[in-house]
Amino acid sequence: MRLSVSGRSAAAAVVAVAGLLTTSAISTASAGTTAPTRAAAPDIPVANVKAHLSQFQSIASANGGNRAHGTAGYRASLDYIKGKLDAAGFTTSVQQFTSSGRVGYNLIADWPGGDPNQVIMAGAHLDSVSRGAGINDNASGSAAVLETALTVSRTQYKPTKHLRFAWWGAEELGLVGSSYHVRNLPAAERSKIKGYLNFDMIGSPNPGYFVYDDDPTIERTFKSYYAGLNISTEPEREGDGRSDHTPFKNAGVPVGGVFTGASSTKTSAQAQKWGGTAGQAFDRCYHSSCDTTANINNTALDRNSDAIAYAVWGLSQ
Ligand code: DTR
Ligand code: CA
Ligand code: ZN
Ligand code: ZN
């Protein structure tokens, strides 16, 4: 869903005020100072995100039906993203690691410019389970992060902070790629990361709207975005320790993100406020072969793609 112009600028104003009032490591404006006018986040075209999902579906179909760690489908997924980002002016690097006897890869993409001592990262795991294409889990997060990065390039966004985007390998084997990345970051580099935003399952077919409750400033940013849409959210707790924000959090990096639900069942109270079907899983194709492009709620994907842009713009100025 697009924010109406007034909704989006009102939401941007909320972020500006939040930026003034918060005193966390992320915010540079101190109370009482006049923060410069912040650029409002652009709308992320959900049609573009869906086009990336179709590509990932085609890749899985052409490679044995999945995009799992160590397979041609995974490497083709990474090459697809890397090609788009190289063409868009990002500085990309492929980080190789081995897990369960197979070679895995992380893709890191830096947007040139910004303060190198203040890095805002957004990431998603790119691998699927071997049982299926992994479109909601987690081509949804991968595609939305990709389209946000491409929008940074398309708009030639020049943030104060440095932007870095990441797609992780072997998350399904136990957060292997993201853990390898954090473990191999020198402490000085790790301390430059002022926020890591994680997006893992953001288009569930029977969606809920959950916000990670780890770092208060990042949590407040996502909640103000949803407040602008008049959508109430719930804290995301079920995923604690279960996705790629965990190695960053354990290393002391402020983390956050949004999530639309996995195999848990939507309650009637949740269906009342969010719509959808009570008594049914948020994603009944979780880790199943039916996790295809048909397993996506477009409204949730659109809202959360725009939430990513809202947070990236809001936290990087
Ligand atoms: N997407 C899941 C990991 C995950 C993230 N949040 C939750 C909440 C409940 C269950 C699982 C998860 C995966 O990659 O398997
Ligand atoms: Ca949108
Ligand atoms: Zn999974
Ligand atoms: Zn996942």
UniProtKB/TrEMBL annotation:
<dbReference type="GO" id="GO:0006508">
    <property type="term" value="P:proteolysis"/>
</dbReference>
<comment type="subunit">
    <text>Monomer.</text>
</comment>
<protein>
    <submittedName>
        <fullName>Aminopeptidase</fullName>
    </submittedName>
</protein>
<keyword id="KW-0479">Metal-binding</keyword>
<comment type="similarity">
    <text>Belongs to the peptidase M28 family. M28A subfamily.</text>
</comment>
<keyword id="KW-0378">Hydrolase</keyword>
<dbReference type="GO" id="GO:0046872">
    <property type="term" value="F:metal ion binding"/>
</dbReference>
<keyword id="KW-1015">Disulfide bond</keyword>
<feature type="signal peptide">
    <location>
        <begin position="1"/>
        <end position="31"/>
    </location>
</feature>
<keyword id="KW-0862">Zinc</keyword>
<keyword id="KW-0031">Aminopeptidase</keyword>
<dbReference type="InterPro" id="IPR007484">
    <property type="entry name" value="Peptidase_M28"/>
</dbReference>
<feature type="domain" description="Peptidase M28">
    <location>
        <begin position="106"/>
        <end position="311"/>
    </location>
</feature>
<keyword id="KW-0732">Signal</keyword>
<dbReference type="Pfam" id="PF04389">
    <property type="entry name" value="Peptidase_M28"/>
</dbReference>
<dbReference type="InterPro" id="IPR041756">
    <property type="entry name" value="M28_SGAP-like"/>
</dbReference>
<dbReference type="GO" id="GO:0008235">
    <property type="term" value="F:metalloexopeptidase activity"/>
</dbReference>
<keyword id="KW-0964">Secreted</keyword>
<dbReference type="GO" id="GO:0005576">
    <property type="term" value="C:extracellular region"/>
</dbReference>
<dbReference type="GO" id="GO:0004177">
    <property type="term" value="F:aminopeptidase activity"/>
</dbReference>
<dbReference type="InterPro" id="IPR045175">
    <property type="entry name" value="M28_fam"/>
</dbReference>
<keyword id="KW-0645">Protease</keyword>
